[in-house]
């Protein structure tokens, strides 16, 4: 695969990752990232302005998705904590009800 084809594939995988993240399908986004990473690592710095711009868009997407993933993780941790407290409360109520 030449560098142009490689960059096209990276851009396509980036688009797919963005789509997965848009619907909070983080497992799919992670699988796609695993496919994209070795391709990114094998890219050389493009010489054409259009290719360089495409690579910059990919980097911007990576940065934005990293931030979004951190926010999503924090939200899920909060929801999980709330659910655990709810389970603990229901269990305590059930125990008292058995006395």
From TrEMBL:
Pfam families: FliT. It comes from the Bacteria. Its main location: cytoplasm. It is found in: Cytoplasm, Cytosol. Keywords: Bacterial flagellum biogenesis, Chaperone, Cytoplasm. This is Flagellar protein FliT.
């Amino acid at each position: 695969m030449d560098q142009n084809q490689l960059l096209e594939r990276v851009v396509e995988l980036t688009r797919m990752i963005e789509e997965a993240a848009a619907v909070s399908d983080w497992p799919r986004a992670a699988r796609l990232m695993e496919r994209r990473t070795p391709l990114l690592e094998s890219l050389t710095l493009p010489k054409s302005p259009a290719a360089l711009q495409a690579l910059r868009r990919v980097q911007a997407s990576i940065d934005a998705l990293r931030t979004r993933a951190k926010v999503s993780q924090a939200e899920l941790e909060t929801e999980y904590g709330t659910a655990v407290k709810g389970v603990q409360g229901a269990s305590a109520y059930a125990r008292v009800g058995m006395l």
